[in-house]
């Protein structure tokens, strides 16, 4: 039987006169009809959330923690079904889709044990000032397509544990798993506390303007993030922007290449490079450049080939959608037109044996100019520039682009040198001798153009709350 999908409003399942389908990027099969929320659906969801907030906003942390455990149980119970839907809508292998679902369970459980506590901020013989954390109201969570469950789940659980109600809008490229998850979660929370609406930029824009919404938590491109922030200014909404990164990866002359090469290959080609913190520009010390390049090409050939079977044990995959497929093909074409040294890959033809799907083979480009499209902009796909460096100050300056504020990595056996470089990189997270993997417990946010505020860890919950100072006399 074909699965069915619904907007979830006030715990009711709603269809719509308008629907769209998503193309499975692995096979180009058309998937299932997905209802597009109308303006009326959106207004109803906001009204239901506002009503629910009157009681949910007063719930205790212990009550919210219990519900997060139940949310984790529901995902666990339906993990196979959710991963299967997610694999089809994203084109991810079963392994990769499983990671998205399992990490969502872990995230629910992490936040079921992590909450903001009251804190004495100041005390003397006359007064005591206590900081407490008050929910904001209704949060709208606007998500991208690359990790649909994890990224929506993060916003949902952060909202819930802090006492907010949340309406999640997944990307129209990947709406299904998130809609099914919300449908399956009905009954755990009071109606109106957790709702889902499917729609595109129009619905997202409406959310950013609605006076009944207190906060937008947005993950996506820098360009859309700027639009979101401008729109939110009209009603002074709280805003968190998790935006693109153009992550630099610096390989020092003493790096342990046996460990560094597989790690850099994962950093660049895991999920075909469609990771916000993927390694997007590799800076290798000139003294080891040739050996590094040869060995990286061999590693990528061995471990990141196109495998059409979704059950093959692969963490490589197709581009998620035709739009992104065309963007990455444009970057490859630009490298070819400009005569850059493509040492692996370089074809813009669909790389699957069937000729179907948004597949591109992994591509490696040696020393393209610093002002090339591939180096200056986030590629978000399986094409990696390998650059060289010889002076520490110079490589740090080249790494610190305005759009490179999200993540970075440094490889060196000399941990003092690695830490010295890491502390000078203008990025929200820096990984040493490992590729970029966010950690539930660690605050995650971008510097400069890569974001505004952040999420994850205990600190991430502050952006889902007002901090109220209570001044007590003594
Ligand atoms: P996008 O900006 O095109 O869309 C993101 C979401 O915003 C979608 O749900 C979309 O429908 C919605 N939207 C579009 N226009 C809107 C508007 N005017 N107002 C409100 N909402 C609007 O991004 P994308 O292509 O889906 O995602 C890929 C990008 O996301 C990459 O640049 C990647 O680096 C970034 N990303 C960042 C993080 C992070 O945590 N920093 C994580 C994952 C992805």
Describe this structure in words.
This is aldehyde dehydrogenase (NAD(+)). The chain has 474 residues and is α/β, with parallel strands linked by helices. It has 15 helices and 22 strands. A seven-stranded mixed β-sheet has the order 14-15-16-13-12-17-18, with helices on both faces. Strand 12 (248-251), helix 9 and strand 13 form a beta-alpha-beta unit. Helix 3 packs antiparallel against helix 6 and helix 4 runs parallel beside helix 5 (148-161). The radius of gyration is 23 Å and the shape is globular. 52% of the residues are buried. The mean pLDDT is 98. The structure holds nicotinamide-adenine-dinucleotide. Residues 142-146, 151, 169, 171-172, 200-201, 204-205, 208, 219-221, 224, 227-228, 242-245, 276, 378, 380, 406, 446, 451 line the site of nicotinamide-adenine-dinucleotide. Nicotinamide-adenine-dinucleotide (NAD) binds next to helix 7 and helix 8.
